């Protein structure tokens, strides 16, 4: 995965979380980037 792709996916996930701190893990970003998008954030 390109660094730019990672950044775009991480940014999209961040917009689903309230506040300033990005609580998204690398595993969550990679999972979404591979196409696993159920429409829900699973924590």
Task: Walk me through the structure.
The chain is an all-alpha fold. It has two helices and no strands. Helix 1 packs across helix 2. The longest helix has 12 residues. The relative contact order is 0.20.
SSE arrangement:
Blueprint lengths: L2 H12 L11 H8 L10
Helix pairs in contact: 1-2
Structural class by helix and strand composition: mainly alpha
- Note the run of SSEs as H and E: HH
Shape, please? globular
Helix percentage: 40-55%
Runs in which pLDDT lies below 50 for 5 or more consecutive residues are: none
Rg over alpha carbons: 10 Å
**Based on the structure, what is the oligomeric state of the protein chains?**
single chain
pLDDT averaged over residues: 82
> Biggest β-sheet, characterized?
none
| Total number of beta strands | 0
**N→C terminal distance:** 23 Å
Strand fraction band? under 5%
Helical run tally: 2
Brief overview, please?
The chain is an all-alpha fold and 43 residues long.
Please give a handful of descriptors for the protein shown.
43 residues; globular; mainly alpha
